[in-house]
Amino acid sequence: MDSLFPDRPFQITYGNTVLYVRPVDMQDRLAFHVSFSSERKPILVVRAKDFNASRFWTSMPEGRQSEAEGVGQLIEEYIAAQQKE
User: Fold this and answer.
1) pLDDT, average across residues 74-80
2) DSSP string, 42-78
């Protein structure tokens, strides 16, 4: 997944909301700043590893974990779709 890191901003439409996604340069981490067309506050999502080396999405700062997981999944799906083209 890390090798597929996009270097330019992109947009994802999810239902009635548009996610404006901008890659963020964080050493050795896959990270994105995401702002929304809705009233929702922006979020920074980061791909991390747990103690078992399993990868997961988290928010920085912490506190919006479930949202980070959902947004991260949408980003993964977007990147996978772009690779198929």
Assistant:
1) 93
2) PEEEEEEE-TTS-EEEEEESSS-HHHHHHHHHHHHHH
